[in-house]
Amino acid sequence: MIKDPNPYQSPQPQSAEFEKEDRKSLVEPNDRRSATKSVQITSILLGSAAMMNAQCLAKEFADISVLGNQSLSNFSYYVNWIFAIGVNGLLVVVLTAASFVFGLRVLERITYWIHQLTFAKAPLSQWNQSVYRTLRSLPWLALVGSIGWCFWCYQFFLLERRSFLSTLPFILFGHLVAAAAYIPLLIRWFWIEFRARSSPS
C-alpha cells in the first residue's frame, strides 16, 4: 500500500547537485551551443590562414635548402618542399582540430581559473554567460583577422617586403582585432562583479 504524502510536511530542499545542474541547464542549451558553433567557425577560419602561412614557410624552407646546397637537383628541392608542407600542414590540422573540438572547454576552464584567482563574488555561471555572449562576434573578428593574416603572408613571402616598418601595420592590426574580442569580455566581467559586490548581502 502506497502512503500518501503528508500535506503538512514542509517541502524538502533541493540538493546542491540538483541546483547546480538546474542553473547549468538554464545557461547552456542555446547560448553554449551558439558559443560552440562560434568557436568552431573561428577555428576553421584561422586554421585556413594558418595553413597558407604553413605552406609559405614550407616553400621558404625548400628555397633555403637549395641556397645552402647548390648541388641539389629539382627533385630534391620538391622533396624538401613536400616534406615541409606535410610537417607544417599536419601541425596546423592537429591544432585546428583540437581547437574545433576542445576550444570552448579550454575557454571555460580559463574562465574558471580567473574566477577563482580574482576571488570573484558573482557566480561562475554568470561569467560563463558573458563568455558565450562575447563569442557571438568571434567568427566575424576571425574572418577579418584571417584576411589580414593572408595579406601579411602575401607581402612577407611573395613580395618579400620583410622590413619592420612594412610588418608593423599588420602587427597593430592583429592586436586591434584581438582587443575587439577580449576587451568587451573584460568589461562584462567587470560590471558583473561590480553589481555583485554592490548589492547588499
What does it look like?
- It is a single chain.
- With 201 residues, this protein is mainly α.
- It is built from 5 helices and no strands.
- It has helices at residues 16-68, 74-117, 124-134, 138-158, 164-198.
- Helix 1 (16-68) runs antiparallel to helix 2, helix 1 (16-68) runs parallel beside helix 4 (138-158) and helix 4 (138-158) runs antiparallel to helix 5 (164-198).
- The two termini are 47 Å apart.
- The model is unreliable at 10-26 (pLDDT under 50).
Gist of the model:
The chain is mostly helical and 201 residues long. It has helices spanning 16-68, 74-117, 124-134, 138-158, 164-198.
Using the CA coordinates, give the radius of gyration: 25 Å
How many strands appear in the DSSP assignment? 0
Report how far apart the termini are. 47 Å
Beta-strand percent range: under 5%
Secondary-structure element series: HHHHH
Largest sheet: none
Structural class, by secondary structure, is: mainly alpha
Shape: elongated
Protein topology:
Elements: H1 16-68, H2 74-117, H3 124-134, H4 138-158, H5 164-198
Helix pairs in contact: 1-2, 1-3, 1-4, 2-3, 3-5, 4-5
Keywords:
201 residues; mainly alpha; 5 helices
